[in-house]
Each structure stands twice: as C-alpha cells, then as structure tokens.
Design a protein that fits this description.
The structure is a single chain. By secondary structure, the chain is of the alpha+beta class. It has a domain at 22-30 and 64-148. 28% of the residues lie in helices and 18% in strands. The chain is built from three helices and six strands; from the N terminus they run H-E-E-E-E-H-E-E-H. The chain has helices at residues 2-18, 76-89, 138-148, and strands at 39-42, 50-53, 60-61, 73-74, 94-101, 107-113. A two-stranded antiparallel ribbon has the order 1-2. A hairpin with a 5-residue loop joins strand 5 and strand 6 (107-113). It is globular and about 50 Å long. It starts with a helix and ends with a helix.
C-alpha cells in the first residue's frame, strides 16, 4: 500500500513537471523603467510595501546599445532586450520562455540555445548555466550574458 501511494505520488509529480506549458514571452516593463518616477516601489507584501529612491549609476547600462559590451553592468531591461533580440535574430538557435513569475510578479525567463537542425535540445548532451538567481549576485547574470553572446 505504501509503495503504491509513493508510486502514484511520483507519477503525478512527473506528469505535472513534464506537462507544463511554456508561456510565450510578452513585452516586459519593470517599475524601475519608469523614468518619470523618483521612487522605485517594490511590489509584493512581505512586511509592507518598500520604497527606494530611483538612482542612476555610471557603471550601469540602462538602454541596450548596438553592441553588447561588458565595460558596464547591465540593467534588467538591457538583459531582457538582448535575450529578446537573440530569440528573434536566431530562431534556429534560441528559444526564450517565461517559466514563472518572481515575488514581484516579474517574469522569470529561460533561454535555451541549441542547433534545432541537429535535433531537440532534450535529446542531446547539454550544459546548464544559470544567472540572476539572487538579486545581489550581479556577476552571475553578467557571466551568463557573456557566455550567451
């Protein structure tokens, strides 16, 4: 009986994991992108709403340029812009998905890079690179962007 319940639970878990639909990527605008706001409001409800002053740093690129260079750090908007560009420019290599939402309701993106002519990405050996898991670890996102370019 215990084995049957465990088997059913595992089967339901696998069905749920492998049947998830990927949502097509929509235009993304984050609250800090509003140039008219002097305050950035953190959405969500932990201990109440948080407010921070809008600050621009000279070490951060806030608008995507013609080339992706790594002399500056990149804002979330710039990283998003480049991932969308790559998915449109290289449809035979790049798939971009929104796989979840963050605490603030921001999309969590997955980018799969594979040569689609040689078969499905799930049928070939792979490497997994992850960035932006924790907001304070900005070099992880920069490293993955550098690898992707």
């Amino acid at each position: 009986m215990k084995k049957t319940i465990s088997t059913i639970a595992l089967a339901l878990l696998f069905c749920n994991l492998f049947s998830q639909d990927y949502k097509p990527l929509k235009q993304i605008t984050w609250t800090e992108s509003d140039k008219n706001d002097s305050v950035y409001t953190v959405a969500g409800y932990r201990h109440g709403i948080s407010f921070f002053p809008q600050v621009k740093y000279s070490d951060v690129e806030y608008v995507a340029g013609e080339e992706l260079n790594f002399d500056l750090f990149h804002s979330a908007d710039v990283m998003n812009e480049w991932m969308v560009r790559w998915s449109k420019e290289y449809p035979g290599l790049v798939d971009l998905y929104e796989v979840a939402k963050s605490y603030e309701g921001r999309p969590i993106l997955q980018m799969t890079i594979t040569n689609k002519e040689t078969g499905k990405d799930t049928d070939k050996p792979a490497a997994f690179f992850e960035g932006n898991r924790h907001s304070g670890e900005i070099t992880s996102a920069e490293s993955v962007m550098w690898l992707a370019q």
